[in-house]
Amino acid sequence: MEILTAVTALSALAQEHRLEIFRLLVREGVHGTPAGHIGEKLGIPLSTLSFHLSQLKNAGLINCRRESRTLFYSANYLSMNELMAYLTENCCEGNPDSCEIPVGCVPEKEK
Amino acid sequence: MEILTAVTALSALAQEHRLEIFRLLVREGVHGTPAGHIGEKLGIPLSTLSFHLSQLKNAGLINCRRESRTLFYSANYLSMNELMAYLTENCCEGNPDSCEIPVGCVPEKEK
DNA sequence: ACTATATTTCTATATTATTAGAAATATGGA
DNA sequence: TCCATATTTCTAATAATATAGAAATATAGT
Question: What is the pLDDT of residue B20?
Answer without folding.
Answer: 97
